[in-house]
Amino acid sequence: MKIFKAFFALVACMLALHANAALFEDDDARRAILDLRQKIEASQQRTAEELRKANEDSSQLRRGLLDLSNQIESLRSEMAVLRGQNEQLTRGIADVQRSQKDVAQGVEERLRKVEPSKVSMDGREFDAEPAEKQEFETALASLRKGDFANAQTLFTAFMKRYPQSGYKSSSLFWVANAQYALRDYKSAVGNFRMLASADPQHPRAPEALLSMANCQVELKDAKAARKTLEDLVSAYPQSEAASAAKERLAKLR
Asked: Which structural domain, as residue segments, surrounds residue 140?
């Protein structure tokens, strides 16, 4: 009996030790599970926090991109407005330049109508007003057409209107020619003489003396004609008129 009691006691002790060992192992497992759960929860919290921050960053980035897009669109609109304004300004400048050019041309045209300009007549250059030049050319054109009476009237009026004109000597020569054609020899002699006396260096002075002698011949004044021809040869010996004068002097003698 004692042996059985001892055996049962030993078995009970072993069972108790085993129960204690199992209880110890369950505590470790629970603690391990708790630690693992805490780690998992901490990891989940960190992950959630990171996701939250990532979402916030993403939201900020989206807002930033939206703001940038809006700014770009605004800049595009402003550039379009500026391009339109620039085009308008360019057209405005072009219009102003055209207007200024038209005004300048108009002013220049008006000045040309009133300001004297350089002209050349019978080898001489001088200043003449536009109206002065036009009137002289009109008178000369009338003479060339053979309208001698009108030419005489026009040249006479011209010399009265422009007594200091550079065309004066030429006008005297042509009005005298018109009078010669009209057989008004006396008036022609007076104008030819006036040209030769007042402007002896004029290129037509030798011709004026030769024509004056022709008028004197028509007036039957051979003596005056010879004197005029002799003066011509003496004053302008190298001229073509002087050669013609020598031939006529030979006939008059």
From this structure: 128-252
